[in-house]
Design a protein that fits this description.
single chain; about 300 residues; Alpha-Beta Plaits; ten-stranded mixed beta sheet
């Protein structure tokens, strides 16, 4: 194959996010459940005649050398060369970017994970899922989750993942119009870092893989980063307050996006109809598996 187009890079939501401690190196210890949703960026890959990794699309605020996509592909290219004694062909990457930066949706990490999956296939590099996860971790703690590719209970800095049943539901997501830098949240002196650890059984018994406990009722846990983000970025607090009138609204990741879950698409549509014009809002359905898995399986059958 010389190309792989229309590759999905879905967003994630943190159904809860607890900070349980801090390591000696400054990294925070977390517990969370990551949920994939069917809304995200789309990437297109074409092999080149030379060995260069080239980003074909300008991404405002992200120089090519700093782009996680480019950095991830170069890491995989170097690993390929280590294993095979030669460099693979270069790749051109075009990006249809719709996920906001600083939104807590994992956009950059998801793009990088999709790039690793696509290039591993195009180059026939032969890395396993775990090897790709290990390769991507130094670039970003969320990248291993997107490569893991299913609803996951996460611990450590976010890299220790176990599959869990997730709710089958619809989400309304608000973009408050601000970009929240993750370092500003984690370095805040008023961030609580002592949440009591929970277990997968605690989460599963609460959700029971059912969206009914979301929506109007209380979901499991909370987002420990939310209070800090609301204080530093008032638009986040405003979005949470507005969406809370429809259910258990909370922030995802370190912010800024806010979401609430509903059992049906019609319920989500009714909320979207009332969102103030100052916010960008959209709906998305939960995903049980990363759509790149089926895309690559179909490609393998065609080949």
């Amino acid at each position: 194959m010389r190309s792989l187009h229309h590759c999905p890079a879905p967003a994630k939501l943190n159904l809860f996010l607890h900070v349980t401690g801090r390591r000696a190196d400054g990294y925070h210890l977390l517990q969370s459940v990551f949920q994939l949703i069917d809304h995200g960026d789309t990437l297109h890959f074409d092999l080149r005649a030379d060995e260069r990794i080239v980003r074909m699309t300008d991404v405002p605020g992200v120089p090519e050398e700093q782009d996680l996509i480019v950095r991830a592909l170069r890491l995989l290219q170097a690993e390929y060369a280590r294993r095979h004694g030669r460099l693979p062909p270069g790749i051109e990457v075009a990006i249809e970017k719709i996920l906001p930066m600083g939104g807590g949706l994992g956009g950059g990490s998801s793009d990088a994970a999709t790039a690793l999956m696509a290039a591993n296939h195009l180059w026939q590099a032969g890395l396993t899922q775990q090897e790709l996860m290990d390769l991507g971790l130094p670039l970003g703690a969320d990248i291993p989750f997107f490569l893991f590719g299913e609803t996951a209970f996460a611990e450590g800095v976010g890299e220790a993942l176990q599959a869990v049943p997730g709710p089958d539901c619809w989400y309304v997501v608000l973009e408050p119009g601000v970009a929240v830098p993750t370092p500003a949240i984690f370095s805040a002196p008023d961030l609580t870092r002592d949440s009591k650890p929970v277990t997968i059984a605690d989460f599963s018994s609460s959700y029971q893989a059912n969206c009914a406990v979301l929506g109007k009722q209380s979901g499991f846990g909370k987002n420990d980063l939310q209070d800090v983000a609301e204080r530093l970025f008032p638009p986040v607090a405003e979005a949470v307050e507005w969406l809370s009138s429809y259910g258990d609204a909370r922030m995802t990741g370190s912010g800024a996006c806010v979401f609430c879950a509903f059992s049906g698409e019609r319920d989500a549509d009714q909320v979207l109809a009332h969102v103030p014009a100052k916010w960008k809002a959209w709906k998305a359905h939960s995903l049980a598996s990363h759509p790149m898995k089926s895309l690559l399986q179909n490609q393998a059958v065609m080949e």
